[in-house]
């Protein structure tokens, strides 16, 4: 069964794509244009009533929220492809911990930067320099915590690549690329080493080529 993934041009759906590639799951990319408002169409709202990206359709099963989707496939196909959850309950606990850190401590600040630096003009509102400055300062403090963690561990949850690392890929790519904030990563020795490793995985390189 081919998994349909909606909105694959954007960051959060790319979180799903890299997971599917790591697990060796075939997928079909379905475009959804946010600028044209296609995420608010009646057809799309039947799949995702909040109008957010992504959504997957896997046969007659529909699921939205990118972190829920990657957890689902990592669990359903745990023995297939890369094990992204850890080998025991303790490792799984750390994967879940750092997924929560990404969602609640890292993502809000990098999302604000992405919104105001990259998409404000296209979405029809002025970039707020105060929000940009505050978000950059808050993200820097989070990255300092990451630097400490990664000085003791190859990856966030331990010495294995997991959903916790994978979940950082799409928005951090914006940070080091079009947002021109690469120094926030490169100035931290252990974060820089970690980013180099995860961003050079074949799965992520394949996503960037889609």
Instruction: Spell out the helices and strands N to C.
Output: EHEHEEHHHHHHHH
> What integer value in Å does the Rg equal?
17 Å
Spatial ordering of strands, largest sheet: 2-1-3-4
Number of domains: 2
- The amount of beta strand, in percent, is 5-15%
CATH class of the largest domain: Mainly Alpha
User: What is the correct CATH architecture of the largest domain?
Assistant: Up-down Bundle
The total of beta strands comes to: 4
| Helix and strand composition category | alpha+beta
Mean pLDDT: 96
> How large is the count of helical segments?
10
State the helicity in percent bands.
55-70%
Give a written overview of the molecule:
Its EC number is 2.5.1.18. One of its GO terms (biological process) is toxin catabolic process. This is glutathione transferase. The protein is α+β, with helices and mostly antiparallel strands and 210 residues long. It folds into 2 domains: 3-77, Glutaredoxin; 89-201, Glutathione S-transferase Yfyf (Class Pi), Chain A, domain 2. Helix content is 58%, strand content 8%. It has 10 helices and 4 strands. It has helices at 11-23, 42-47, 66-76, 89-123, 129-150, 163-166, 169-176, 183-186, 189-199, 202-209, and strands at residues 3-6, 27-30, 55-58, 61-64. It has a 4-stranded mixed beta sheet with strand order 2-1-3-4, with helices on one face. α1 runs parallel beside α3 and α1 (11-23) crosses α10.
